[in-house]
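Hello again, I could really use a second opinion on something today. I've been puzzling over a protein and I'd love to understand its fold better. I'm sending you its amino acid sequence along with the backbone structure tokens. It would help a lot if you went through both lines with me. I've dropped the whole record in just underneath, so have a look.
***
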Amino acid sequence: MSRNRLETAIERIQFSRNYTKQFLTELTDEEWFWTPPGFVTHIAWQVAHLASSQYSLCLLRVRGRKESDDAIIPQDFFENYRIGSAPQAGIENNPPLDSIQRIFDAVHAQVLSEIADKTDEELNIPLESPHPAFETRLGAIEYSPQHELVHAGQIALLRRLMGKNFKR
């Protein structure tokens, strides 16, 4: 049963990433870091947060941290954009846009390459620190695309506030 759930989760992870990426086109560097008046977020923070969250949900919670992870997502990047982090306005207060985009893509590729081969036995292990939405490794993987779609909606709203049309 878990294999079918894992395959469904992988399909949803791919769908949510494709859905998110449609909102990341035709943006200037300034638009990536634009913060609407009265708010604290911007598209670059949303994307960096998605990279950190996907790493946490699909790699860290499933197999723990590896030294080689720093090549995919440096520890300081992860700490700056993980759950509970606060967006910092301005290009100057964030990593370069190309770094954010590279990490976003690298984490996603690593997740897809690692989770496909997980067994039911590996995935049905309860987490040491359960989340209110899930208790097992498989639950963390299944939650990842749901979380991404929430942030895709925020990215879409930021685009709308910039006066950009909905992308589809």
Summary: Helices lie at 2-21, 29-32, 43-63, 75-81, 97-115, 120-123, 137-161. The radius of gyration is 16 Å. The chain is about 60% helix and 5% strand.
